[in-house]
Amino acid sequence: MDDKRTVKVSKYVSKHLRHQPERIGLVLDPHGWVEIEDLLRAAAAHGFAFSRAELDHVVAANDKQRFAVDGTRIRASQGHTVEVDLGLPEAEPPAYLYHGTVAAALDAIRAEGLRPMARHHVHLSPDRETATRVGARRGRPVVLSVDAGAMRAAGHVFRISANGVWLVDAVPPRFLRFQ
User: Which InterPro entries does the record associate with it (predicted)?
Assistant: First the structure.
């Protein structure tokens, strides 16, 4: 499977497991899981066929580990805009986490902090390098430091997804450090 096909299948699966399962007739369970065979059938019925081997390659090769497989089921690890309960337990964050963004977003972030926007949580990275890659998807990246230790002490709840992305409801401006 070439890189172009891998990216195409990954984006298709991500779109339908995170944002629009109904578009191809999928119904996610309350925790975001769907039978792999149902996903393969639905994709083929909607004009984008791929094999189980291709799906397995996408899951294994994805550098961001966007998907989790449990037996015969698959789900997106985080980033949903559809209502799901990933069942992630509370976790003690490191003292600092990081968020990658672009300069155009800084005025709003200074005023309102980090908000989940269309997603259910704000996504935070465990290191600057990852946050830089995240921010670079939208342009020249700017990395913000999040005082996660102080947030936790103030009662904010953190969770960590299977692929190491930290999730929190919001980050008020007072917990952000602008470099």
Answer: Ptrans_KptA/Tpt1 (IPR002745), RNA_2'-PTrans_C (IPR042081), RNA_2'-PTrans_KptA (IPR022928), RNA_2'-PTrans_N (IPR042080)
Burial of 62 per CB tally in 10 Å (0-12, 13-18, 19+):
middle
Q: Categorize the per-residue pLDDT at 87 as very low, low, confident or very high, splitting at 50, 70 and 90.
A: confident
Same domain, 102 and 65: no
- Structural domain for 55, as ranges: 3-76
- Which CATH number covers residue 69? 1.10.10.970
**Domain edge (last residue) among 76, 106, 139:** 76
Question: Quick check: pTM over 0.70?
Answer: yes
